[in-house]
Amino acid sequence: MADIYFWYRVDHILANKWRPNTFDEVLGQDTTVQALKNALDRSLLHYCYIFTGIRGVGKTTLARLFAKSLNCEQGLQAHACGQCSSCVGIKEGNDLDCYEIDAASRTKVEETLKILDLATYPPTRSRYKIFLIDEVHMLSNHSFNALLKTLEQPPSHVKFLLATTDISRIPDTVRSRCIEFTLNPGKKDDVQSHIRRVCEAEDYQIDDQALETIVDQANGSVRDAITLLQTLMTASNDRTITNDLVERVMGIVSEHVYEELVKHLESNHREKILSFLEHLSNQQTNYMRLIDQCIVKMSRLAKISQSNGSNFQNWIQIALLTKRDAALYPSMKIAFEMMIMRMLEFVPKINNLNQGPITDQKKNYHKDKSTQSI
Ligand SMILES: [Zn+2]
């Protein structure tokens, strides 16, 4: 019966291979890890836990580690043995008393009721019957109501471990019955060190700039960083990962290209902007990623800019609106190009930035620009 809910995993997926096997291997979630360890070592257990945070930050991993500790045959302890049939079964996703459910594909109330019915029976061989429900925010309202009924009077042998990327979609009535852990996005230094360790262990060379670009793109998600690394390993012919390879594989553009873009925008140089767009269209450019990169780079520039802060704010707003409306454009290339042209319209028309003091330059601003709305 249980096997219909199993998630099969394969070893050649690097993110699975490098998934932490103990609490001590979990990256950057010290507070949550300590709280879980304390709960286990002091036997202060609740019946429902919810893990929230961005994707790839370790929610399911922590839930599985917690499940192993709950049902380890060596006893209830923070340091699960990792060897007993329960520990191995949970790790491999085929334990009889630990049900992993992907709520995104099982939203209907009938399916939730079927799962909850299993909760009424005691565990087959373990201490607890554990239900690990991933992406729990995807359940329908009826499903949440059914879950709530079980949470109101939970059988003593049942533990619910819920994971979600969107805690705001969990009804308050359910949340109030859960111990909630918010997982932090991975710190840049931690993720970089981890990726470097993976490269060394897998016998790949990686340069510092490539490492930085990967971590920037992963945006705090350790799994995203490792998945990207695996893509790059596959693309590399000589077990070397350079920044050039990262940019080519991901369709992103170099730092200096942004500087060039900003320079052309600031100087309102339409011809150079058009040739810049032409240049991009001849590359394998990932335009959606490029818009994200623009937002990140411009927000950095906005913080350090002495005089053009409001320009960057406007441009970031234009980029955000382009992202929002992306699906309406015939292609992402057109969306990106129109975004740049719109940014150009929002640059104060200064004949020559290098001439005259800033007070004189301001007199040349097109007054009508200040009244435009985005
Ligand atoms: Zn064990």
Verbal overview:
- This protein is α/β, with parallel strands linked by helices and 374 residues long.
- It has three domains: 2-182, 3-Layer(aba) Sandwich (Rossmann fold), CATH 3.40.50.300; 188-250, Helicase, Ruva Protein, domain 3, CATH 1.10.8; 255-371, Up-down Bundle (Zinc Finger, Delta Prime, domain 3).
- The chain contains 17 helices and seven strands.
- The protein has a five-stranded parallel β-sheet with strand order 2-3-4-1-5, covered by helices on one side. Strands 6-7 form a two-stranded parallel sheet.
- α9 packs parallel to α11 (243-250), α14 packs antiparallel against α15 (309-324) and α15 (309-324) packs antiparallel against α16 (332-345).
- It is elongated, with a radius of gyration of 26 Å.
- It starts with 13 loop residues before the first helix and ends in an 11-residue tail after the last helix.
- Mean pLDDT is 85; it is low at 1-11 and 350-374.
- The structure holds zinc ion (ZN).
- The site of zinc ion has 9 residues, from α4.
Bound molecules: zinc ion
Number of strands: 7
Helical percent range?
40-55%
CATH topology of the largest domain: Rossmann fold
Order of helices and strands: HHEHHEHEHEHEHEHHEHHHHHHH
Proportion of residues in extended strands: 5-15%
Major sheet size, sense and barrel closure: 5 strands, parallel
Net shape: elongated
- Describe the strand arrangement of the main beta sheet, using strand numbers: 2-3-4-1-5
CATH 4th-level superfamily of the largest domain? P-loop containing nucleotide triphosphate hydrolases
Count of alpha and pi helical runs: 17
Q: Structural class, from secondary structure content?
A: alpha/beta
